[in-house]
Amino acid sequence: SDMAYVTEGGDKPSSRFHDFVDLCCQAYNLIRKHTHLFLNLLGLMLSCGIPELSDLEDLKYVYDALRPQDSDADATTYFTRLIESSLGSVATKLNFFIHNLAQMKFTGSDARPTLSFAPRTHTLKTSGRIRDVFLCRHERVFNPSKGYTYVVKVQRDNPGEVTFVQRTFEEFQELHNKLRLLFPSSLLPSFPSRFVIGRSRGEAVAERRKEELNGYIWHLIHAAPEVAECDLIYTFFHPLPRDEKAAGTNPTPKPADATWARSLGKVGGEVKLSISYKNNKLFIMVMHIRGLPPLQDGNDPDPYVKTYLLPDPQKTTKRKTKVARKTCNPTYNEMLVYDGIPRGDLEQRELRLSVLSEEGFWENILLGEVGIRLRDLDLAQEKMGWFALGSRGHGTL
Fold first, then answer.
1. CB of 127 closer than 8 Å to CB of 238
2. Residues in domain PX (predicted)?
3. Contact partners, residue 47, CB within 8 Å, separation at least 6
4. CA 347 to CA 370: how far, in whole Å?
């Protein structure tokens, strides 16, 4: 989303998002510590004629949102989930969309939308009139990300001039979004839904999207001249360097290293933990990971954290975080709790933490792990810090 683009400083997830989340959660906890002060100040404003602040129910809403009964750790987890949900929120996207429109208005009317994946703008005059387009197949790809690409056959007025271009579903969607900035919806065909039931990268979904996208581009080419002949469309269907690989008719073969059992990839990176002990409970807050290596095929992993409290011959102490998607710098802020651990037992225990990439039907890939001897930590107070991830070894704060 645009919000993630701004906070991360680009279109790739980065450790800047860790700083953003940490600062937001620190601010939230600071406000929570002064809940009663804020409620008293807002209570003085009940008679000021503000529609959203007129009775005790409005104060209760603020009280519930601040969650003063929660610990700082629980509140951090809660607020992190709010940040993550806001990234996909329609309201957030609408807010950034309105700001973008305002920016376009004040940067001058000559600014025209362009496609992020096209280095140059192409026109009907420079490329030649497009006579027909046909989406002939979809192909499985593994780089730069795992998914499907769609091969479009483009025929122009010049006899025998046929080119093939490869575009992802997201690139089709970008084209549609940019066209909506230029033309009313009444002049544009409807775009296929992004949301599907079940696995979003399955063969059946790709086949269905192929048919829907084929109809979409046919209607684009046969739309009103101001749409069909616009620079965005001619740029979209102009070949890129990567499209030379689509000139043939055979599907791209699967890379040789895409086997069914990939258990160990490159290891590396660091994990930020907060470790504390209270009332016979060991609390492990998994906060962030930075610098994970990409997978062997060049894609970003789908990382999650798994912990054991050793010795554990029956493997009853396994705890897991949620899976973060397509990132080498995930944020979790999830609390993993071990209950019923007497303080005397901590001296004999080791926290074994592993970071793995979820691979669906394949074996999950180990991205790094670290062992933390609890006897090396003074758990009389919270310990927070970064631990280096490797193939094996012990970490220290």
1. yes
2. 128-244
3. none
4. 18
Give per-residue burial for 330-354: e unless 16+ CB within 10 Å, then b: bbbbbbbebeebeeeebeebbbbbb
Q: If DSSP codes are grouped into helix, strand and coil, which group holds residue 136? A: strand
What element of type H or E holds 28? helix 16-33
Same domain, 53 and 146: no
| Mean pLDDT, range 21-40, rounded to an integer | 93
List CB contacts of 345: < 8 A, sequence separation 6 or more. none
Please state the pTM of the whole predicted model: 0.51
The answer to whether residue 344 sits within a structural domain is: yes
Taking the C-alpha atoms of residue 136 and residue 151, their distance in angstroms, rounded to an integer, is 6
Domain that holds residue 100: 2-106
H/E segment holding residue 310: strand 303-310
Residue 128 included in any domain = yes
Residue-wise pLDDT tens digits, 107-129: 554 567 889 888 899 999 998 99
**pLDDT given at position 98:** 62
Residue 7 is predicted with a pLDDT of: 60
Q: Residue 48: CA atoms inside 13 Å, Cβ hemisphere, count?
A: 9
C-alpha span between 140 and 137 (Å, rounded): 10
pLDDT tops 70 at residue 375: yes
Confidence band, pLDDT 50/70/90 cuts, at residue 368: very high
Mean pLDDT over 101-105 rounds to 56
Q: Does residue 196 lie in a domain region?
A: yes
Among 191, 187, 194, 178, which residue's Cα sits nearest to residue 233?
178
Domains contained in the chain, number: 3
Q: Please check whether residue 367 lies inside any domain of the structure.
A: yes
Q: In this structure, are 289 and 339 located in the same domain?
A: yes
Please work out, in degrees rounded to the nearest 5, the angle formed at the alpha carbon of residue 271 by the alpha carbons of 269 and 272: 140
Residue type at 195 in one-letter notation: F
The whole-number pLDDT of residue 54 equals 86
